[in-house]
Amino acid sequence: MSGALGGARRQLRRLRPAYPRPGRSGWQRWVPSWRQSLGAFLYVTVGLTGFVAFAYATTDIPDDLNSFATQQDNVYYWADGSVMARTGWVIRQEIPLDKVPPKVRGAVLAAENASFYSDAGVSPTGVLRAVSAAVTGGETQGGSTITQQYVKNVYLSQDRTLSRKFTELLLAVKLDNRTSKDTILRNYLNTSWFGRGTYGIQRASHAYYGKDVSRLNPSEGAFLAALLKGAGLYDPAISEANRKRAVERWSWILDRMVETGHLTRAERTTYTKFPEPTGPGTGGIPGAQTGYLVELAKRHAIRAGHIEAADYDLGGYQIRTTFDRARTKALTAAVHKADKDFDAERRPRTDKYARIGAASVARDGSLLAMYGGADYLKQGFNQANATTVPAGSAFTPFVYAAALDEGVQRTRGAARTPVSPTSVYDGNDRVAVRTPEGPYWDRSGKVVRGRNEGGRDWGPVTLRQAVADSVNTPMLQLGLDVGLDRVESHALRAGLLESSLGERIPSFALGENSTPSAIRMAGAYRTFAAGGTHTEPYSVRSVTHAGAAVPLDKPKPARAVSRRTALAVTDALRATMTEGSAAAAGRAHPGAVGKTGTTSANTAGWFVGGTEAETTAVVVYRMSLTDLVPLPLRGLGGDSPDTPGSERAVDLWADYIKAVE
Questions:
Q1: pLDDT score for 576
Q2: Are the C-beta atoms of residues 280 and 506 closer than 8 Å to each other?
Q3: Measuring CA to CA, how many Å separate 490 from each of 404, 497, 519, 565?
Q4: What does the alpha-carbon distance between residue 474 and residue 572 come to, in Å, rounded to a whole number?
Q5: Which residues lie below 8 Å from residue 159, measured CB to CB, with a gap of 6+?
Q6: Cis bond leading into 20, ω under 30°?
């Protein structure tokens, strides 16, 4: 055994290089022989190869990408397809590779990495330049492949260090081995920085050319490819020097596309004029009215698309809303005019409680316009979607519809008796409300009596006239004759929410304790205009994510009242505009229908009016947002200080309809 060990030691001594070299003197002792030099080279090569192999084997592709690599913005569009707003911290939208035109892809490849589809994910020359710069103390150089750039964008920091570059190389090779080239290119195009606050070629296309990436031509694609070298240096909107650099690089990329086979020489000759991008926009951050529209559309998209809120907040959704840009502008202008016209002498300038909510609904239930408040960024409370304001006598068409459909029962146990628009009721003020057993007593032991606006005695009136002239006492009695449970059922079928309907006591028939929103009132009145079928109001027509459609639950029309009843109610609402409480507006807008609404405590003034195209609800009220308790409307001006709200609502509606017709 000892002999074997001794032999091994002798062999090791022979392999150990004799250094300094024996038999040499002076400086020559320190000069390695060619065998020693070759051995050292082999040792270093094997060591480095082993180190790289070990590093490659132990380096995993991270599961968590940089936050901006997955975060996207959500883009909202007007009904005409123009951009309304975008939300999210990162301005980015993913797009499938097949949505990017081949020649636009070719521009990127020509500019950044012509050998992309044949290389191993790294550039040897670029690596040598980076190593040389690091060794000499110079700045780390570029020359990275698309795969390397993508790795740096989504997995690593932007530090210019040799260690970061080494990690980038390992990840690039590993990613290239595991992932298809098309996937890498798609991800690269979706995560690259293009300036103007945008990540990804889809958002860049909108930022610079105002259109979807699928509509870009090769010349525009060449400009966007130029931005990849440094958007701050090539965005023409920044400076004239930038424009000069952009034109030079754009031209070079087009020439390079010919060399790489992505353009023919004949095609190149057609692109001689620089495709000037648009100036930078405002960014589309939702404020003012837009914020209310976006919030409503967001809630609808999540609900109808069965989208998890957390997924929605990651972004990448394109939401096509139903909102008409021109109508929204006209409605907002009408509200501003009404607000300015409030009597300054009766309404102190310090009164911040006056509010107006308005919404316009089309025949199919789509929301065309809405006014939610002065500025969403300052007040998130949506005045058009609030369920805090009593409907007042604007509720009575539902009582009328229930009576026409169901008939009345004045004697307990007797058969129900049909009624018609010509059925006559007592229209005098202070008429006692009766049940089959006698007068209705309230909880304080007093007989409940109806009150007409201004205490007016109308005498015997038909039901049609009671609706048209807003005579309260007949409708109060009619509610009990029909049965308040049946009235409630009709209101629900017409589109009001159960949560907004009050307790079934006599004043329920006059809407005193029900608080539907302007959106819901517009949708419910539209039921009558649609022949008795109701379609739930909706604010989103379609949603896509990464180019794919998201299935939405579409609202479907449902029978709410009979067609005959709907026609009768519509006739009464038309009489309101020709001979009733809104005759002034009716003369200005022939053929329109509508109904004013007031409350006994004068806390709200309504008008719900319709044309062939739409139904619009307007409500004027005063309310503190700290306690949401309605306040009296006195002080808002008008011909009659006791009932300014409904008059203001009628005038506002008339201004709006005049602007959009």
A1: 92
A2: no
A3: 11, 11, 17, 11
A4: 14
A5: none
A6: yes
